[in-house]
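User: Teach me something about this protein's shape.
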Amino acid sequence: MNTFKGIKSFGALYHDDAPQARPSRPWVTDFSILPVPYKGMELGNVSEFEPAPDWSRWHLGDTPTQPNNTLNWIVIEDSTRRLYICDRMILVRVSWQDLFDAGYVEGAEVVIDGITYTCRLMTGGNDYQVGTDGLSGGHPTDNEWDCFVSGEEPLEGLPTLTPNDRSGVLSDKVLHAPHNQFWNWIGAVSWTSTPYANRETARCCRGYQAGQFFYLNTYDHRHEDIGWRPVLEQLL
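Assistant: First, the predicted structure itself:
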């Protein structure tokens, strides 16, 4: 049985050994290609991998001295492991293949503040729940996104999706509602580890249009709205 253990702040994303600011607007970074998710939404300020696509220049590292550079992690625990799920996307214009090459899809060892973790992506289902309707969520529903974000496994302390959060109609009200403030999914598509069941080149990703939204993109594409939401796993 999974239990929500709160939010813990530690570690940072580093580029050229400099800690990057935790995105205060963790969503799409370019409105010239995609339409604005809703009128009046500001441009996102997430770090971008494509201008420096070399993993030797990027890493997750120790907790910095500046709090606004420190990452926030949602802590989920069962009898064998503790998961630290980043509460937002921290890097865009990074492809699934880029993350795979670095080991961050299935699991790579990282050390933060002297503690060793396995860094990977969330699972997200391998197909649409209903037809090709992204608002239906992912299938099967025992994946981590649907269990923890969509609420298929209700955990005390985690916010639940409201009809507004599920509707696919974005607004400032939805942006500032409790669920998005907790999980930061508006205008932000998080890669998952899961290949799509029906197309070899497609990978499943979640978020952007609704809290439960299920989406596909080609494994080697880099986009301004799709990115890296790391998960740290620690065995107990």
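Now, about its shape. The CA atoms of residues 65 and 231 lie 22 Å apart. The chain is about 10% helix and 30% strand. If you'd like, I can walk through any region in more detail.
User: That's plenty for now, thanks!
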